[in-house]
Amino acid sequence: MPTLLHIESSPRKARSASLAVARTYIETYRAAHPDHHVDVLDLWATALPELDGDALDAKYTDLSGAALSEDQQQAWDGFRSLAQRLHEADVLLFSVPLWNFSIPYKLKHFIDAVSHRGILFAFDERGLSGLLKDKKAVVIYARGLDYSRQSSTPADGFDFQRPYFEAWLRLIGVSDIESIVVEKTLFGPELDHAAREAASAQALALAKSI
């Protein structure tokens, strides 16, 4: 069954701009594809595996080609299990608020937990090759300010949210990326509402086209 996986990284829930637009996308997607499955991974309600000593030892043991110990294998299995949901999905939907010019630490934790050789990418003498082929990603970014290059301020130089996240997607093999940006959410309720409405209209149109 075709699957859409929504990975949400905002803890604000009902107040979240990125989640509000993501819900519009999901509702439209469900209506257009009633036979598809929608899987939701809430990073704030998920016990993400720690990258502790056993986990890092597992990573470097794997890179060396040696056999993993029992504790290392258990840590590695945790990473692989979490990443499996990415492998099983056909469409990856991410709702990503901007925190301190970048992404929430829970999302960074998730990325660190699943981004390993043999799990999301291959690595040999020829270099890196992503393992998530033939998938589409839809990323909804929320920002309080205008970080576009058209801004009258140098704010675009502080945008480490979208460039970082889309570089990671390309690293793991996802090249078909659609982005929706909700910005100026800190400029008062009228601009916030208008930004959400405009982004939701984009999400509705995009969900219908997939």
Strand content: 15-25%
Secondary-structure class: alpha/beta
Architecture (CATH level 2) name: 3-Layer(aba) Sandwich
Backbone CA Rg: 18 Å
Distance between the terminal alpha carbons, to the nearest Å? 15 Å
The CATH homologous superfamily name equals: Flavodoxin domain
Quick structural overview:
This protein is of the alpha/beta class and 210 residues long.
Mind explaining what this structure looks like?
This protein has a single domain, classed as Flavodoxin domain (Rossmann fold), CATH 3.40.50.360. It is 42% helix and 20% strand. The chain is built from six helices and seven strands. The strands form two sheets. The chain has a five-stranded parallel beta sheet with strand order 2-1-3-6-7, with helices on both faces. Strand 6 (136-142), helix 5 and strand 7 (176-182) form a beta-alpha-beta unit.
Sequence-ordered SSE layout with sheet pairings:
Layout: E1 3-8, H1 17-32, E2 37-42, H2 53-64, H3 70-88, E3 91-97, H4 105-114, E4 121-124, E5 127-130, E6 136-142, H5 162-171, E7 176-182, H6 189-209
